[in-house]
Amino acid sequence: MISHNALLKRTWPVIVQYAEAHRKPRWVPVAKSKIYRIPKRPEITEEERIELLRVNNNYKTQMRAIRRFYHEEMIKEKSTRESSSSEMSQKLEADDWQRCVEINDKWNAQVALEREERRKKELAKMEEYALARMEAKDRELKERIEKASQEIRKQKELSKTFITPENLDAAIDHALANPVDYNFAIDLQGNQYLGRESPAIPPKHKTTPKAV
Amino acid sequence: MPLPPASGTGLYYAKAAKSIRLIRQGCTNRPFFHIAVTHRRRLNSQPVIEQLGSYDPVPNIYNEKLVALNLERIKYWLGKGAHVTTPVAEILGLAGFFPIHPRTYMTAWRNRQAEFERLAKEAEASENAQTSS
Description:
The complex is a heterodimer of chains A (about 210) and B (about 130). With about 210 residues, chain A is an all-alpha fold. Helices cover about 60% and strands about 0% of the residues of chain A. Chain A has a domain at about 10-145. Chain A is built from four helices and two strands. Chain A has a two-stranded antiparallel ribbon. In chain A, a hairpin with a 5-residue loop joins strand 1 and strand 2. The N and C termini of chain A lie far apart (about 120 Å). Chain B is of the alpha+beta class and about 130 residues long. Chain B folds into two domains: about 1-100, CATH 3.30.1320.10; about 100-135. Helices cover about 40% and strands about 20% of the residues of chain B. Chain B has helices at about 70-80, 85-95, 100-130; strands spanning about 20-25, 35-40, 50-55, 65-70, 85. The longest helix of chain B has about 30 residues, at about 100-130. The model of chain B has no long low-confidence stretch (mean pLDDT about 95). The interface between A and B is medium-sized, with 20 and 22 residues.
C-alpha cells in the first residue's frame, strides 16, 4: 500500500490501472481444476521449422547490419557536428544563410503583392455590399413612409363622417328616425328580401283566465 | 500538475535500455496505438520518452490501416541502440524501412495454406453434390 505522504509528494500523477490489477495476486495458488492441465504446444512441421529458421537467420543478419549502419551514422554525425566550427564550414554556412535570406525576401515580396491585390478586392467587395445594404434600407424606409402617409390620408377622409360631441344629438335623432331592420332574408345569389310579414316583436300570448 | 503528454516527456536515463513499442491509446473496443520509444523496463501506462508515430489497426472506409512514422527519429533512436518490439518491427518491415519480419512471412504462408485448404474442400463438396444429383 502506498503511504499517504508518498502520494502527496509524487512527481508523476498516479496511474490508476495496471495490467496486474486484473490478475490474481502472486500468492494465490493454481486453481484446483487447472493443476494437471498441460498447455498444448504449437505444432510446427519439420518443413516449416527449417523455413522459419532460415528466414529468422536472414532477418537477424540483416538487422545487425542495419543497426550497425545507424550507429556508425550517428557517430559520424556527432563528429561532423563537433568539427563544423572550422572557418571553411562557417563560410559555407554563411553563404547558405545568405542564399536562404534572398529566397525568403523574394517570396515575401511576392506574397505581399498578392496580399495587397487580395485586400483591394476584398475592400471593393465590402464597399459594394455596404452600399447595397444602405440602398435597401433607404428603400424600405421610403416604403414605410409612403404606407403611413396613405393611412393618414384615408383616416382624414373618414374623419368627415365621425360622430363628435357637436353633432351627437343630430346623429341620435337621425338613428331614431331611420331604424334599420337587419332581419332580412337572403338567397344564394346574395339578394336581400326586405320587409317582414310578422311583427318584429312577437305579441305575448294572452293567458286565458281560468274559470273559477 | 498536468498529465504528462502522450507525445512524450523527452526525459530519459542515458544508460537505461530503450525500446520502440506500441502503446495502446484507444478506448474500449476501439484499439489505437502510438509508436513510442520508452524505457524497456517501464509499463505501457507510464510516460514515454518520445512518440515516433501512430498505428490504427481498424481498417477505414478504403480498407486501409493507417500508419504514421517519424523515420528520422526512429533512425536516431536506433543509432542510440534502442530495441524494437516484434509488432513494431513487422510494421517497419511492411513500410520498407526494415527487411520483412519472419512473422509476417509465417502468417502469410499460413493464411495461404488455409485458403488453399478451404478452396479444396469447396471443390470437393461441389463435386459430391454433382455426383449425387
